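Late entry, evening session. Most of the bench is empty. Finally got around to the prediction I had been postponing all week. Sequence below, unchanged from the version circulated by S.P.
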Amino acid sequence: MWAGERGGPGSPHGFQLLLRCKTATLPSQSLGQALSQQWRDGTGRGERVKKGILERLNSGEVVIGDGSFVFTLEKRGYVKAGLWTPEAAVEYPEAVRQLHMEYLRAGSNVMQTFTFFAGKDNLESKWKDVNEAACDLAREVAEKGDALVAGGISQTSLYQSQKNKLEIKEIFQQQLEVFTRKNVDFLIAEYFEYCEEAVWAVEVLKESGKPVAATMCIGPEGDMHNLTPGECAVRLVKAGASIVGVNCRFGPEISLATVKLMKEGLEASGLKAYLMVQTLGFHTPDCGKGGFVDLPQYPFGLEPRLATRWDIQKYAREAYNLGVRYIGGCCGFEPYHIRAIAEELAPERGFLPDASEKHGSWGSGLSMHTKPWIRARAQKEYWKNLLPASGRPYFPSLSKPDA
């Protein structure tokens, strides 16, 4: 769906199952197993030919992206903090494959190549091997379910110092050549602080003839050249992006506020595009214009800010109500957060993910607990209204950004 339009539910069969699930006549475990098996044997969706990203969005489907890679793999011991480059695709392919699998099982429709900061400017001679390996891993996992492969590029390390358009475009072109050869399904230009560089990226990616999404790592104050979110969206669409939005740098509330401004900018200009949001898995109400990278806790002390699964269900619903149909996460956004999106939007999608087999809706599994006060928590209202404590009595709830 275009920005602001409403769409229908998923497959009728899956939605009927879901309604039965919600009235407690069918457990979520059975629903997830049934629909997963239907995809594998080809009976649930009529055919096994996957629809493209624009086909899905145009039909009103909710597309669920993936979540954190560099942050999650750093915690697991496979990525080094600093440049956050993705050599793990070559050095530890099993770790990257496993994380892709976790997102797929949690409900992701898109396996994005692990190619963040993977241009020649950051990886030098290793860039080609890393991009090729990342494409192969994403495709391998995507073929295990109803997922597409997105080739991803991000801002370069050259823009702020040189702004050499030809050199920067060449870096994007090199990655695009790999993505084209590996036949990714669509392309994403993500994590851009400057709209100008993002436009250059879109211009290069459009040469492939494949659909292009573009997301900026900005908040409501706009990009680092003080372009508003609305103006950024307009320029990206005019450059050729079919999907626009934000990713990273800010938490759910700020990310959605920024997408709303993008939507308003597009509407005011008479332009149409699908909306996309991939927020942090952290709460960042005290961020400045630069986002969470300016907080004193970045990057090793952010855990107290982590969003709960219930926070993410709220985020998913608010994103959907805003008209966003491509919803995912970025740094700090774990597989269980992706599952929360899939569970919240199951009525619209018509099915639950495989990972819901082991997760009772709104804590329903607690109804079997031996302690009555824990059994009392097996209800939506309890978790929806909970105010989580940090367990740190002498710590501040907010902090002052360093920049």
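Two things to note before I forget:
The chain has 17 helices and eight strands.
The first strand starts at residue 63 and ends at 64.
Will write this up properly tomorrow.
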